[in-house]
Amino acid sequence: MLARPLVAVTSGEPAGVGPEICLRLMDGVTGALNADLVVLGDRHLMAARAEAISFTGELREWSPGLMPLPGHLDILHVPLSVPSRPGQLDPENSSYVLQLLQRAIEGCRTGEFSAMVTAPVHKGVINDAGIPFTGHTEYLAEQTQTPRVVMMLTGGGLKVALATTHLPLKEVPSALTQNSIEQTLRILHADLVRKYAIEDPRILVAGLNPHAGEGGYLGREEIEIIAPVLDRLRAEGMRLIGPLPADTMFTPPMLALGDCVLAMYHDQGLTALKYASFGAGINVTLGLPIIRTSVDHGTALELAGSGRADPGSLFVAVEQAIEMAQRQ
Description:
Elements: E1 6-10, H1 18-23, E2 36-41, H2 43-52, E3 58-61, E4 72-77, H3 94-110, E5 115-118, H4 123-128, H5 136-143, E6 150-155, E7 158-162, H6 172-175, H7 178-194, E8 202-206, H8 221-235, E9 239-244, H9 246-249, H10 252-255, E10 260-263, H11 266-277, E11 282-286, E12 292-295, H12 312-327
Parallel strand pairs: 1-2, 1-5, 2-4, 3-4, 5-12, 7-10, 8-9, 8-10
Antiparallel strand pairs: 6-7, 6-11, 11-12
Helix pairs in contact: 7-8
């Protein structure tokens, strides 16, 4: 890891707000954190979007070893497949979006970059291009040959990890096994220690069913799948509380008992988190051999090119990536 972290920021879907919120990074999120940034994107796209939003800095093409220059934003040029217009998706640029990710992953794996931060991509248009794509989390796991990763969002004083990610609700029960929950908890516990410096994490674990199954009356997943895993891991010394009813788990008295929440499915956990932190929450992928954080919002096509997109989530994602890199 570099003595002064160098963080790669992928600019995401070119028709969305990613390029312009990346331009706003020159506003100074890294000055007090002793780190440098490089934005990955097409230099012509970034210049056009800079003009559209009256960007006041200078864009400079980045190369390894280039020293930071005040008033400049460094761009690692990755060419678009076809020209892009704000708000207008084009499947032909899906390969470009994935090239941004691949370049950042490669740089993190070789030590060229200390961490990567991702601006939003559009899953639908990538799939329209004939490229199966579930999301950043799953793609990063595949590209780094990581058998299991954990998606965690932070913000509003909360850390919420997910036992399952982007699945139809009807597929969630069959995806929850003792093995999958155990692996998720081991990864979550390890990275809370390693990346967040929480020495002895306390994890609140949700049940799957209403009222955590109500003793089996509303479902038996808590009794047959979740609770046996928690008992085994508690015997090893992990501090796990649950399975808990999800409808009361996010109340202040319950949250005070833990450092992080493990939800069983996407909306069970993220509805509460996004209510508490919308615009300032971030996504962290745990279990990877590299550091990756991301914004917690989408491409906002309707705002692209307007200069009105809020860069707050990106700022927080960069700051947390730098902090993790410095700890390691």
